[in-house]
Structure formats: C-alpha cells, structure tokens
Amino acid sequence: MIVKTDAVIIGAGPVGLFSVFELGILGLNVQVIDNLDKIGGQCIELYPDKPIYDIPGIPDCTGEILIKNLIKQIKPFKAGFHLNQRVNALKKNNKLWHVITSENKIFETPNIIIAGGVGSFEPRKVEAKNVEKFHENGFYYFVRDKSKFKDQVVAIFGSGDSALDWTLELSNIAKKVYLIHRRDDFKGAAYTLSKIKEISKLGRIEIKTFYQLKGINGDKKLENIEIQKEGQPVEILKIDSALAFFGLKMELGPIANWGLNLEDKCILVNTKNFQTNEEGIFAIGDICTYPGKLKLILSGFHEGALAARECFARARPNEKFIFQYTTSSTQIHKRLGIK
Ligand SMILES: Cc1cc2nc3c(=O)[nH]c(=O)nc-3n(C[C@H](O)[C@H](O)[C@H](O)COP(=O)(O)OP(=O)(O)OC[C@H]3O[C@@H](n4cnc5c(N)ncnc54)[C@H](O)[C@@H]3O)c2cc1C
Questions:
Q1: What is the pTM of this model?
Q2: Do domains 2-122+249-336 and 125-246 have the same CATH topology?
Q3: What is the pLDDT of residues 77-113, one digit of tens each?
Q4: 125-246 homologous superfamily
Q5: pLDDT of the residue at 49
Q6: What is the mean pLDDT of the chain?
Q7: Is 181 touching ligand 1 by the criterion CB < 6 Å?
C-alpha cells in the first residue's frame, strides 16, 4: 500500500518535529519516519537530562522537556509517525517521490524533508557465533513488540539504561530474565539497578557479571547461548530469546546513496528554501550545510520554516501562499484548534 502525503520528514529529532508545525500551519499533512524506537533524535538518545540554554524564549530546559513540548506543539496536526524503520531509498516518480523504508512501507509525496541529524542511529553489533543467523529470529537489538517475550526465558546483554530498563520491564511478563554484563559496573540509573537487585531476590531476574556472549545455538529456532567468564570454560544457558543493548552509533547510512551533493558527510543546500540539488528534496538541521551553517537547534527551526514555504508551493501549485502571523490568523487558529 502506498501512503500519499504532502510531505515526508526523515528524522524525528527536534528539527524534524518543529517542521511538522511549520508545515501544519500551512495546512499540509505530514508523515515522519525515524530509525529509532522513540521520538526526539539526539536530545532524547544522547542527553535527555542535560539542560539546554539557547532555545529562544526558554531560559533553560532539558533535552527531554524540549521534545515533550515539541510533541505537544504539533499534536493538532495529527502527523503520522513511523518509528523503528530506516528510510533506505528515494525514487523519482514523475514530479513526485517515493520514499521506501526498511519495513517496505512506501510513501508518495512531492516533498521530502531530510532532518536526519548526523545520520541514523544504528545499534552497535555483537560479534559472536551465529548472531547474524538468529538476528530478528530470537536475537534482537530493539524491542519492537514486548509481548513476544511473554512467558519466555530472556537474556539481556548490556549495562546502560536500555539494558536495565528492559530487564525490569520484561521481568513483569517473562518467565525469567538474565541480565548479563562483561564487568560489574552498570552504567544505567542506580535506582533501576537497585530495583533489579531487589527483584532478583525473588528469582525472576538473575544478574550474571563478568560474562560475554560467545555464540548462539539452535537449528531453526534459538535453543541456547554460549557465555563465558574470562579464563573459565564456556557455559550453556537455555533461553528463548536474547537482546543486546551495547549502545548506538551514528551513520550517514543510505542517505549517502541518494545522489545528493555532499560536503563533509552533510547535504549541500541553498539558503533560500533549503532545497538540495534534487527538486522536492530538502535538508535541514544538523544534516545540511551551507556557508556559515551553525549546528544548533535554533538554526534548524529557521531552516524548517523556510523549507515549509517551498513545500507548500509544490504541494498546492494552484494556491497562493499568503504569509500570516500565528497570533492573528484565524485560519491558523482553526488548524491549531484554537477557538
Ligand atoms: C551532548 C550534546 C549537547 C548538545 N547541546 C545543545 C545545546 O545546548 N543547544 C543546541 O542548540 N544544540 C545542542 N546540541 C546539538 C543538537 O542536539 C542538534 O543540533 C540537534 O539534535 C539536531 O537536530 P536534528 O533534528 O537535525 O537531528 P537529530 O537530533 O540528530 O535527529 C535526527 C534523527 O534522524 C534519524 N535518521 C537519520 N537518518 C535516517 C534514515 N535514513 N531513516 C530514518 N531515520 C533517520 C535519526 O535516527 C535521528 O533520530 C547538542 C548535542 C549533543 C550531542
């Protein structure tokens, strides 16, 4: 099925989110795609608790609060969000574009806004026997649907917040959760770790430190994993599923193959409307570059506002663009649900 829309935004970071607003007040409908399982880009993935002091009109707020407010601000526009999937390809279809994701979703649109930051966040891969064979079939880097782990014995590898949070969360539905780490210093929140230790006394969670994953065994289905303590023999652990949370790395990924002019891994744009060398493809936020570019959230907000005007002209070629202030436009008030 092809989803038709006025604009597709690649990247649900702060800049992609504010662009939903700028497109929304012009009456355009939008679909947003992100590789991550949550909205917020770098603000949520890298520094949710760090204060930001240079958002105009907001003396200080954390990365998390900024994203919460942006989500609130764009709520009236009912944008579609498609998480957990990477945009792999863009294909020209007459005057329109087809945007194709790793989940084989296809979007048809006259406007693509790339707000991809420094590229897509990709999980750091594990190197161990048969990991590739069981990828997405017993061995996972993301939880897409937690009900899959109901009544299972699950092994979680990692020491950060994702590993600790999912250990706690899955312990509510799984038969048993092993939390396995190659050292004994967990990097995630101390509060979550203390809760895990409390529950481990009941046997639903078992913490195994100084172990590493060596391999996965099974025929069609994962049957057990091999784990090893340094200098000790390999141990076999019978489990149903394994999850690895070893952090994320950022990669330009497929964006590099879309025929766009690049400079230092960023997309070259004009500063009139932030269009790239391809008509109908715009780039804003950290991913774009032009003389004087500042990699700041506020720059991305400005870039999104100007790109939105050109998107309007392309999506509504027979309508005249009329500049209006949000304070006084009854049309914008209606779109925002203000009475
Ligand atoms: C520690 C730290 C502190 C910072 N402090 C400040 C500050 O105080 N003030 C300030 O203004 N800026 C700050 N920044 C910079 C700011 O976070 C970035 O400028 C901002 O996040 C850029 O927003 P963005 O929406 O362009 O990209 P991002 O936030 O990087 O979001 C891009 C999103 O696009 C997704 N994506 C990329 N490619 C694809 C694809 N092919 N398919 C699907 N999804 C894709 C990624 O998964 C990601 O979620 C800081 C950055 C860091 C790391």
A1: 0.81
A2: yes
A3: 999 999 999 999 999 989 999 999 999 999 999 999 9
A4: FAD/NAD(P)-binding domain (3.50.50.60)
A5: 83
A6: 95
A7: no
Tell how far the Cα of 259 is from the centroid of ligand 1, in angstroms.
22
Residue 71, pLDDT score? 98
What's the rounded Cα separation, in Å, for the pair 5 and 165? 36
Q: How large a percentage of the chain has pLDDT more than 90? A: 89
* Mean pLDDT, residues 106-128 taken together: 93
**Predicted local distance difference test score (pLDDT) of residue 37:** 86
Architecture of domain 2-122+249-336: 3-Layer(bba) Sandwich (3.50)
User: Domain coordinates of the chain in residue numbers?
Assistant: 2-122+249-336, 125-246
Distance (Å) from CA 291 to ligand 1 centroid: 20
With CA atoms as reference, report the closest residue to 92 among 75, 78, 76, 112: 112
Looking at residue 142, what is its pLDDT?
86
Instruction: State which of 249, 255, 297 you would mutate to test the pocket of ligand 1, scoring each by most atoms of that ligand within 8 A of its C-beta.
Output: 297
- 3-state per-residue secondary structure call for the chain: CEEECCEEEECCCHHHHHHHHHHHCCCCCEEEECCCCCCCHHHHHCCCCCEECCECCECCEEHHHHHHHHHHHHHHHCCEEECCCCEEEEEEECCEEEEEECCCCEEEECEEEECCCCCEEEECCCCCECHHHHECCCEECCCCCHHHHCCCEEEEECCCHHHHHHHHHHCCCCCEEEEEECCCCCCCCHHHHHHHHHHHCCCCEEEEECEEEEEEEECCCEEEEEEEECCCCCEEEECCEEEECCCEEEECHHHHHCCCCEECCEEECCCCCCECCCCCEEECHHHEECCCCCCCHHHHHHHHHHHHHHHHHHHCCCCCCCCCCCCCCHHHHHHHCCC
Cα of 120 vs centre of ligand 1, distance in Å, is: 10
What's the pLDDT score for residue 147?
92
Q: Whose CA is nearest to atom 7 of ligand 1?
A: 52
Question: 315 CA to middle of ligand 1, Å?
Answer: 27
